[in-house]
Amino acid sequence: MHGMRLAVLMTAPLAFACATTDRISLPRTASEQIISTEAIDRSLAQIRWPELAGKRLLVQVGGTQELDRDYLLRSVEILIAERGGIVVYDEDDAQYEVNVVVGAAGIDVEGRFFGVRGSAGSLLIPFTIPELALYKTTRLDGFVKTEIAVLDPKQGGVVHRSGPTYGTTYSRSRTILFFFRKRWTDTTHLERPEPRDEDVY
């Protein structure tokens, strides 16, 4: 009897219902990377490009976190090559500069949780308690805002400008009674999407 009371006293502080807002920390999961990079793809797909065939272009990226900068840079270089442009890496060799400006990029995470959060152990609780979710929802929303400006570094001036354009993605998951989990998303590389009328807490 005393053992049961002790267990209740030790785990009771861990059991609660709450709304949660988290930050994505490194390393990101594969799903989080797909949500972020597909939002970039969707934003870039809306960009209007000028005639690029045969032109030598240097790509500059600004405003984004280092985390997704390389993916964005390579994606723009591929889009230029697909249109017959020639990507160069020397300013003196470039006829034009393509400035890619990212106004916002990231993943928002929200959710609700009711159950036992779990613990990695401590002096008070010298054993690991797994997370036990009576009810848990998680919402991930990817968002990217981009625009481009093609500049003439020798003559000066803006030759072409497009944007801003916006790319969004989402992923949702719901866990009920520890084991019953459902997940849906609108990204093409993860699970098949389902109607968004289930986006509730």
Give a verbal description of the structure:
With 201 residues, the chain is α/β, with parallel strands linked by helices. The protein has one domain (30-117, 125-191). 21% of the residues lie in helices and 41% in strands. It contains three helices and seven strands, in the order αβαβαβββββ. The protein has helices at residues 2-11, 30-44, 66-82; strands at 15-22, 56-62, 86-87, 96-116, 132-151, 158-176, 180-185. Strands 1, 2, 3, 4, 5, 6 and 7 form a seven-stranded mixed beta sheet that branches. A hairpin with a 3-residue loop joins β6 (158-176) and β7. α2 (30-44) crosses α3. It is elongated, with a radius of gyration of 24 Å.
**Gyration radius over CA:** 24 Å
- The N- and C-terminal alpha carbons lie at a distance of 37 Å
Mean pLDDT, rounded to whole units?
81
Oligomerization:
single chain
Number of strands: 7
Number of domains: 1
Which class do the helix and strand fractions yield?
alpha/beta
**Overall body shape:** elongated
